[in-house]
Write a structure and sequence with these properties.
The chain is built from 10 helices and 17 strands. By secondary structure, it is α/β, with parallel strands linked by helices. Strand 2, helix 2 (about 35-45) and strand 3 form a beta-alpha-beta unit.
Length: about 350
Amino acid sequence: MIKIGIVGTGGIADWHVTEFQKNKNSTVVAACDISSDRLNAFCDNFNIKERYNSVEELLDKADIDAVTNTTPDSFHKDISIQVINKNKHIFCEKPLAENYQDAKEMCDALKNKNLVNMVNFSYRNSSGYQELVKTVQSGKIGNIIHMDANYYQSWLSSKYWGDWKTQDKWLWRLSTNHGSMGTLGDIGVHIFDFASFPIGPINKLNARLKTFQSKGEKIKDYILDANDTFISMIEFENGALGTITSTRFATGYSNRLELRIFGDKGAVKIEFDDPLTEGNQFMFTDDINREFTSRKDKLKWEIIETKPIMNNFEKFIDSILNGKNHQPNFIRGAEIQKILDKCSESSLSNSWVDI
């Protein structure tokens, strides 16, 4: 039985503890948070007995094999390195760090240590997406020519998610002073992983980030200066071109991911709001050599149904038990962080930048 300690008991922690507790090979035995009230409420809810107010105390006193780091972004680096230095396996929420240099230091801390490390890119949990990746990487659609990917949310233009103007859980995501990297860091981190994993490394990009003052400039002590939307042009190492975009002003979309990849022998696409309930299929076409009798003939896309797969939490436990580190690991997290840094650099210089 893999014994886990959880650091940070905010909203995302509920998901982590639920997944680890229902796994027959793991259990959460200890939790840590600087807020005693939040910590006690969380532990009472999930029947966790061991409670600590500092990471140092957790690592010194708790009998644990691994830690799941669900703290805000600005704490990912320091806490994860403390965990690594205590020779505990580490599962960290995304983004891995606030910048590439910090992410690299996290990877460097793992050198010469036989520790499982993963970052929670949650849309990897889509079985349809994983089969799409295999299809692209197998060469079935040929040499990749073009791709486009979108991640659309609407919580700045709709109350579907609640009223963001009155809730701190949303407001901090709009403020750089509160550790937010805006849309780029919050959901751009997902879509860049989602879009590039099937194809391979990005060689260069040109990005534009924008913050819209029409929503206001400050609410309470939150200065609303983080980016709300971004667009980017991408060139991959294999020569393919593409676009990757995201916004929180996508009226009509709650949480939509879309990916289309076109090769010289076929194409694939996938789109969903929820990676589990809707992400269990993708679409494929090799409708290239078919003869068409008229314009009334329709181009054909085949729906490929896929079987359930292990999610990231299950992969983390499986990695510890079997000694083979599943993806996405810290190296992948650092690669994505470097891309995000380059997007910011490109937007400031209004130019193409090399990765």
